[in-house]
Amino acid sequence: MATELFPMLDPDYIDNPEPYWQQLREKAPLYWSEEFNFWVVTRYEDVDNFAKRPEDFSSSSGPGGGLRADNTSAEDVVGFLPMIQNDPPEHTRLRSIFSKSFTSRRIAQLESEIRELAAQLMADLQSKSSAGKAVDLYKDFASPLPVAVIAKLLGIPLDYYDRLKFWNEALGIGAGESYTEKQRFNATTEMNDTLYEIIEEKRFNPADDLISSLVKLADEDGGQLKPNELLGFSKLLWIAGNETTTNLITNAAVVLQEQPEIIEKLQNDKTLVPQFVEEALRYVGPVNGLFRRVTRDLEYKGKKFKKNDNVWIMFASANRDERHFESPESFILERSPNDHLSLGKGVHFCMGAALARLEAQIAFECLVDVLPGFQLKPEEGLHIPVPVLRGWLKLPMIRKK
User: Fold this and answer.
1) pTM of this prediction?
2) For residues 247 and 256, what is the distance between their CA atoms, to the nearest angstrom?
């Protein structure tokens, strides 16, 4: 099969990958890329199937397992992340322990604070704009909101806010060339050291936060949760919990601008915002796909997969599959059912899904009232330069006259 079916690094692909995904779904839904040395899986049925078979398709190589922009990947810098890089039974053990602390009650308790944070950030953005200063949806709202929420959830003092922001930017998968490898290694060392200090502080002075709860569980369970796992989970939640929610907010905001009739519907009925978030997850989800590694030689639909082959399961393409969704290229606010795969499937279904949904819903309850007075400038923005993710690192906005 010709490699032009999947020109992953081509600027046209990066700017608008959907037509290429459609071609793959039609002509080569299980496509072996000679150029990049991994499989690309694009149809809903297959992505759904692969995601539910950890015994055959392992997560051990990490979310970006088959992608290497240079000799060092983001995962090499950050280190091993528990649960997201574990398979059952180890994954089952860790998820069971973490779920005792990462509860729906704890997330629900954050709602009022998320609302206050979102309102304050939006007020600051408007004041900044009124003063004639340049504003950016990514920098002034979509990124700082999840940063503050995760800091609160984990119990990281806000004194660390500037360092948290640096970690978030330098260690995100989408950091690209914005930071040197030395800066990213320094950020990793600093993050590890700081989180370790906070963990130790919580051991002696616990509070009502996630790290304190995990420390208590680790101590009570007689070492079932190892120190490096506690540290790794804090890193995982920090990195994954920030970047993906930020991407969802920026992506969905651009959709709103393109379809002003949806803004009007949401302004008139805020109870539709959760449906908007679900369709945004399907239509412009924050993660294009994640990698799995084949655990044994196997055959699937006539294709021979070899042990240790990397497989990119493309959630974003599956969400546009004509075989599964009616009019998938249209953003349909009232779409039901909406069984998109943007939050994963099977044992690796996103543990932070409820928090991401809550943050996005609150964010858009604010944004639908503010966006009509502004013009987003995506043509002057900057996409995340990594094909695993979909989002913005820069999204300027100007006040309409």
Assistant:
1) 0.90
2) 14
